From TrEMBL:
<dbReference type="GO" id="GO:0070573">
    <property type="term" value="F:metallodipeptidase activity"/>
</dbReference>
<dbReference type="Pfam" id="PF01244">
    <property type="entry name" value="Peptidase_M19"/>
</dbReference>
<keyword id="KW-0862">Zinc</keyword>
<keyword id="KW-0378">Hydrolase</keyword>
<feature type="region of interest" description="Disordered">
    <location>
        <begin position="1"/>
        <end position="27"/>
    </location>
</feature>
<keyword id="KW-0645">Protease</keyword>
<dbReference type="GO" id="GO:0006508">
    <property type="term" value="P:proteolysis"/>
</dbReference>
<comment type="similarity">
    <text>Belongs to the metallo-dependent hydrolases superfamily. Peptidase M19 family.</text>
</comment>
<feature type="compositionally biased region" description="Basic and acidic residues">
    <location>
        <begin position="17"/>
        <end position="27"/>
    </location>
</feature>
<keyword id="KW-0812">Transmembrane</keyword>
<dbReference type="InterPro" id="IPR032466">
    <property type="entry name" value="Metal_Hydrolase"/>
</dbReference>
<feature type="transmembrane region" description="Helical">
    <location>
        <begin position="38"/>
        <end position="59"/>
    </location>
</feature>
<keyword id="KW-0482">Metalloprotease</keyword>
<protein>
    <recommendedName>
        <fullName>Dipeptidase</fullName>
        <ecNumber>3.4.13.19</ecNumber>
    </recommendedName>
</protein>
<keyword id="KW-0479">Metal-binding</keyword>
<keyword id="KW-0224">Dipeptidase</keyword>
<keyword id="KW-0472">Membrane</keyword>
Length: 462
């Protein structure tokens, strides 16, 4: 689709001023008035005919009159119609690390220290992004049973995201559905979705997943850089030895529950086996919220070709979300982190474009998107320094022959299609009577529990 926003009504010109009364007009004034009307009418008719001719000349071809303009001007025009929806931005963790969660300590209308603030989001034609709510994974103990503050810290991350969206409600709108995203963008707001960056943030509990959903989380990455009770991580540069050989039993229940809720399954960070198993198991389309192509730069964090091909030809239509050949639809949103893009010191806007082109070639251009990882990465590619630079990236793709439709898919249309597919699966499962997953982590000793001896408790503790 060329754009996912409805065309704005063309300005029809201001209303005609009230007519002067003819009383008091001289014959000459009246004649001059008629001549003016005829001339204006003639000019308008000519302009109309010219517009029709120009439309007929250009409308059925790929080209439009403005295609003579330079690629950056064209990129900006395209992104006005189909703004960027970035799959992964880390503003909440910057808020935690740098400001101890104090959202009064900085001004998003001014220049922020990282890669993201409101003026640069506007310059970059951003219409929406997933606010990553992230906490680290480590020191879990052998079976992930070491108590931790992760659920608290995730709630704090969700809290700061909500506080910022609320504080700058002239700019941001919390959006929970694809319809919300589109209406926010129609009002020129930046649609704001939450994404949880790892099932290690769940405290091993599907009940916690449901509560994160109810607080607005619309995707969850199955792992971060560590294995967890649900799935194996793919590591960062090289893959660690697997623990579950993919998904655990609890991980399979997790995918069912995410499908039922309508929460996107995010396969960034997971092992190749988890990617394959999740693609086969998930009833809903999946995403990679911030991952690049392994064939372009060989690190385990990137997606290999043998998985990218599984997405080819899978775009869902309105009736069959699994698409032709029962393939699971998905979108790989390209990560800009230099260490995933190219050898040290070599990451540039052009090499990021190489990843986009490669995924477009192997998976299809309707399966690629943008997931910058801004504010979550230390250094940045040359030419892609912050959120103001998406138009420059699109200009590079225009130079490489990307059409308006393909650009609109990359910038956000592909993500919206996939998200809509997940919403449909959720509605379908609920209509079919799918019940909430009640699976418990097998290494959890506290449930089910014996009823306490209330009489004894009150005697001892009150
Ligand atoms: C939060 O930041 C504001 C503005 O800098 C400051 O006035 C306030 O004291 C801070 N709050 C805390 C608890 O540090
Ligand atoms: C990519 O790296 C992995 C290990 O890090 C290695 O086994 C593999 O052969 C490499 N692939 C290519 C095409 O170089
Ligand atoms: C898709 O799956 C359904 C149900 O398993 C099967 O009946 C159908 O033949 C499959 N279609 C294709 C094209 O493989
Ligand atoms: C997808 O698969 C079809 C049929 O196998 C093939 O013709 C097409 O070239 C593939 N597309 C891409 C982008 O690889």
């Amino acid at each position: 689709m060329a754009s996912y926003l409805p065309e704005r009504s063309p300005l029809l010109g201001s209303r005609a001023p009230p007519r002067d009364s003819d009383v008091g007009q001289s014959e000459e004034e009246w004649k001059a008035h008629r001549v003016r009307r005829i001339v204006v009418g003639g000019v308008l008719t000519f302009a109309f005919i010219l517009a029709v001719v120009i439309s007929l000349l250009f409308v059925n071809q790929e080209g439009w009159p403005w295609e003579d303009e330079d690629p950056l001007t064209r990129a900006r025009a395209m992104l006005n119609k189909a703004p960027v929806i970035d799959g992964h931005i880390d503003l909440p963790i910057l808020t935690r690390f740098r400001y101890a969660n104090n959202v009064s300590a900085f001004d998003l209308h001014g220049r922020m220290p990282g890669h993201v603030d409101i003026p640069r989001l506007r310059e970059g034609k951003v219409g929406g992004f997933f606010w990553s709510v992230f906490v680290e994974c480590k020191n879990d103990g052998r079976y992930f049973t070491q108590p931790s503050y992760r659920v608290r810290d995730t709630l704090e991350q969700i809290d700061v995201a909500h506080l910022m969206i609320d504080k700058y409600s002239d700019t941001f709108a919390l959006t929970l559905t694809t319809d919300d995203i589109k209406s926010a963008m129609r009002e020129h707001k930046i649609a704001s979705m939450l994404g949880v960056e790892g099932a290690h943030q769940l405290g091993n509990s599907l009940g916690v997943l449901r509560q994160f959903y109810s607080l607005g989380a619309r995707y969850m990455t199955l792992t971060h850089g560590c294995h967890n009770a649900f799935a194996d991580s793919g590591g960062i540069l090289t893959a660690p030895a697997p623990l579950h050989n993919g998904l655990s039993t609890l991980g399979r229940a997790l995918i069912y529950e995410m499908n039922r809720l309508g929460m996107l399954v995010d396969l960034s960070h997971v092992s190749d086996d988890v990617m394959r198993q999740a693609l086969a198991l998930s009833q809903a389309p999946v995403i990679w919220s911030h991952s690049s192509a392994r064939a372009v730069h060989n690190v385990s964090r990137n997606v290999p070709d043998d998985i990218l091909v599984l997405l080819n030809d899978s775009a869902s239509d309105s009736a069959h979300w699994r698409g032709k050949g029962n393939k699971t639809d998905g979108v790989v949103m390209v990560n800009f982190a230099p260490m995933f893009v190219a050898d040290e010191g070599k990451a540039t806007l052009e090499t990021v474009a190489d990843h986009i082109e490669h995924i477009g070639k192997v998976a299809g251009r309707d399966h690629v998107g943008l997931g910058s990882d801004f504010d979550g990465i230390g250094d940045v590619p040359e030419g892609l320094e912050d959120v103001s630079k998406y138009p420059q990236l699109v200009a590079e793709l225009i130079k490489r022959g990307w059409t308006r439709q393909e650009v609109a898919g990359l910038s956000g249309g592909n993500l919206l299609r996939v998200f809509k597919g997940a919403e449909k699966v959720s509605e379908h499962m609920k209509r079919q009577g799918a019940t909430p997953a009640m699976d418990l982590y097998s290494r959890r000793p506290d449930l089910p529990a014996e009823m306490p001896d209330w009489a004894g408790v009150s005697r001892l503790d009150l």
